[in-house]
Amino acid sequence: MQSLGLVALPLLAVAPLATCGSCTVSSSTWSINGIRSDMEVHEVVLEEALTLEAGDTVDVATPFGAIEVTVADDDFGVVATVKGYGEDAEEARQRAEAVRLVSERIGSALSLRAANENGSELEKVGIAFVVRVPAGVAVHADSSSGGVALRGALGDVHAESGFGALTVEGARGALRLDTSSGGVRVVDVEGGRADIESGFGGLVLHRCSFEACIVQTQSGSVRLDDVRADTASIGSGFGSLSLTRCEFAETCTVDTSSGQVVLRNVTAAALEIESGFGAVTLTDCRGDLDADTSSGAVRIDRHEGRRLRLHSGFGGLTAKGVFHAVDLDSSSGALSVTALPGSSVAEDWHLASGFGSVQLTLPAELACDVAMRTSFGKVSTDLPLNLSRGTADGESSDAAGALNGGGHRVVLRSSSGSVRLTGR
User: Fold this and answer.
1) Distance (Å, whole) CA 79 – CA 85
2) Residue 53 pLDDT > 70, yes or no?
3) What pTM does this model have?
4) Euclidean distance between CA atoms 86 and 97, whole angstroms
5) Residues 6+ apart with CB under 8 A from 216
6) How is residue 93 annotated by DSSP?
7) Which residue has the higher pLDDT, 305 or 26?
8) N or C: which terminus of the chain carries fewer CB neighbours within 10 A?
């Protein structure tokens, strides 16, 4: 088996910056838990064969160093690469050679740790683990400072890092990933519930299938490609959210306090989208849609769903697709909706703008009652309305009538802006 080197921090051309209580990076050195990049280093490699089978659990942890767990057909075991750090070569050697690999089994659970031979606390050492296990083994991997990489058809996976990236590829079980600072990458994973969180870092999921998927970063972008789940909750405190070719049997909730939201070819029974500050764009999506942005435009293209509700505190709303119940509201922004053939007014439709024009395009054969009004502007239509109030020739500000015999109401309102109903 090959050993895995300890995580290396980049030498950043910046003034000294404390990233945590015991971690400092400067223009020429880094320091973590008393270990400095200018110290002498001595390396020792420890190996041990392991007896494991599917259904067992491996728990591996290190205070400083990377962890890699890989599925193998045979030769199961662990390699621990120990690096001792000191002010001189002798101190570094003594620290490294005092470390022992400790494996402890209780039932089907195996714990892997490194410890000083005299029982004292580990100090100024880093330990990187490489573990080979059979398929179906559950893994708990925890590095206080270092990346974690888990590859192959593992069982349930729980990975944590205080400072480092997390990578999971090919697992076949429930997923729980948590890093305080670092990116997360999940590829070709199938399992039950997935809980993925990063305090600071981007999250990427590709070709995955879960029963439930919960993905959250306090600061960073989130990208899902070819993901399937019954339910999903995707969020970022600060960062963009992108979903492509995803399917959710029930509800998909997408939420960012500040960042754009982009969905392409996403299907769900219900899509719930919220952005505190940022544009929302959906293309070729399906499902009931509820999208809300405090400040930003919303653009929906080639959508299909029974219910469409869009709201923007400040920004325009544009929607094109097959709809059956529509509710659009912008405090300040133009509204434009194009209902494609196959649409129906199955319930009342409402389009309202506090400041901006309102335009609705309907299939000419659609049946509904229409009410149009603007406080500052004109109303107009090229459809053959049977008028019951006002005129709709662009000369008045209020009109109502029945289209194709009438039906549920279509209400178009603007406090300041033109209102137009057209046919196609």
Assistant:
1) 19
2) yes
3) 0.88
4) 13
5) 196, 197, 198, 233, 234, 235, 236
6) H
7) 305
8) C
